[in-house]
Design a protein that fits this description.
By secondary structure, this protein is of the alpha+beta class. It has two helices and eight strands. The model has no long low-confidence stretch (mean pLDDT 86).
Length: 137
């Protein structure tokens, strides 16, 4: 059994991680947080908005992911995310403004507002803020 996993993280915009050797992956599965260690059974899991973490050499690294799915097979973890942001690159002030804007849009009962889109943007910004604040603590 391998002592590490290979992690790949892909979004429609870019390949963010390629064959990165890691000790553990923790991801926001649709039904709750899920941990993956070497030797994990083959799995296909749907992602939700949240914190994807991996451990490498005793250090934690965080990405905010925006849904997608994960395939685990033969100690390779392939993450196909709709979007992902490295915690260190998230602008807390910009995300706060996006949250305020989305909440304002949702509070108005204006027929011109795409409520589904505003709700998705709110969820994305909240996920980014949680990952950023977790990283800061």
């Amino acid at each position: 059994m391998a002592k590490t996993l290979k992690l790949n993280l892909v979004t429609p915009q870019a390949q963010l991680l390629t064959d990165l050797e890691v000790d553990m992956v923790i991801l926001p599965a649709l039904l709750g947080e899920m941990g993956i260690l070497p030797g994990h059974v083959p799995t296909l899991v749907q992602l939700t908005f949240g914190d994807l973490r991996y451990k490498k050499d005793g250090k934690d690294f965080d990405f905010a992911v925006m849904g997608g799915f994960v395939e685990v097979l033969n100690d390779v973890v392939n993450v196909f995310a709709e979007g992902a942001d490295l915690a260190d690159e998230i602008d807390e002030e910009a995300e706060s403004q996006k949250i305020k804007k989305a909440k304002d849009a949702l509070s108005k009962k204006d027929a011109d507002i795409d409520f589904e889109l505003a709700e998705i943007e709110l969820k994305k910004s909240i996920a980014r803020m949680k990952v950023k604040r977790r990283k800061l603590s």
